[in-house]
Please model this.
Amino acid sequence: MSQKSLLRDFRSWNHFMSSKRSNKMPTIHRPLYEIAREIRKDWGSKVNYAAKPYLDAMETLDKITDNYMMDSGMSIVLYFLSNANTWRGETAKKIKKELKLMANSKG
Model:
């Protein structure tokens, strides 16, 4: 096999693998209970009263596809985000971004 054909094969394999990674590989997220623990640690005792029930629920969930009583994990996360506007700072930005990414990827 010539060097040229090896290079062509490598490039096509590399292209194939990069398209597999970007399109097909599932995104792995941290468990919601772990994220909720980090939120409590950062937000402390000043958790917004409207966000608190959703944060409590997130502490019992593993994935966004899980249910909490009659509510979906997705709705719990989205309601938390809509009520967490008073939580600010670098940690808040990072975790809110993580939760939004999780909600957009649906799991």
